[in-house]
Amino acid sequence: MMATTAAAANVLLDSIVGIYHDDVRRQLRQIQHTMVNIAGKYGLCYQQLHPIAELFVELESELRLHLVRQEQALFPWLRRSKALGEAGATPGTEMMQVIQRVRQTDSRIEALFCEIRELTGGYARPVDSCAAYRQIVFALSQLDEQTRKHFQVERELLGGLDASPGERQPQVD
């Protein structure tokens, strides 16, 4: 885990929840609402819309699960270990399982975004499509980009914590 003070760790975790997590929840609601509207109106015109909508349902579920695991298990553990001054805190078996599940969810989210990128031609917004369809594609591209940045911060925050105890990365202060 990157070396930080308890106060700095709390600020970082608060910003992840207050900025990324809250924004993701808002984006998911907006995309879902718009997706339902255009699927009903234009579903036959945009053949790729149905597979995109199906992938989005799964993506939404995985993203929500990711947020909950971080907010209810991972972040409280990180806060406690920093508050206790455990710079090189080693998670117990239960926390290692949480970290492993977070990593698995991250991988699934990345795979879903990859499939959506493929179906949309790299988030290309066809000129002849309706504004709502272009909005969906743009919103998905923004969510994808934001999620990739979040995963990078998460990887830096967790550092070597996802390695098994014998494989732990050396901590650099």
The radius of gyration computed from the alpha-carbon positions, rounded to a whole number of angstroms, is 19 Å
Helix/strand order: HHHH
User: Largest beta sheet, briefly?
Assistant: none
Derived structural class: mainly alpha
The beta-strand count equals 0
Give the overall silhouette: elongated
Count of helix runs: 4
Helix content: over 70%
Average of per-residue pLDDT values = 82
Instruction: Kindly give the count of domains.
Output: 1
Approximately how much beta-strand content do the residues carry?
A: under 5%
Uncertain segments are 163-173
- How far apart the termini lie comes to 10 Å
Write structural notes for this entry:
With 173 residues, the chain is mostly helical. It has one domain. It has helices at residues 6-42, 49-83, 93-119, 131-158. Helix 2 (49-83) packs antiparallel against helix 3 and helix 3 (93-119) runs antiparallel to helix 4 (131-158). The longest helix has 37 residues, at 6-42.
Topology:
Elements: H1 6-42, H2 49-83, H3 93-119, H4 131-158
Helix pairs in contact: 1-2, 1-4, 2-3, 3-4
Q: Which features would summarize this protein structure in a list?
A:
disordered C terminus; 173 residues; elongated; 4 helices; mainly alpha
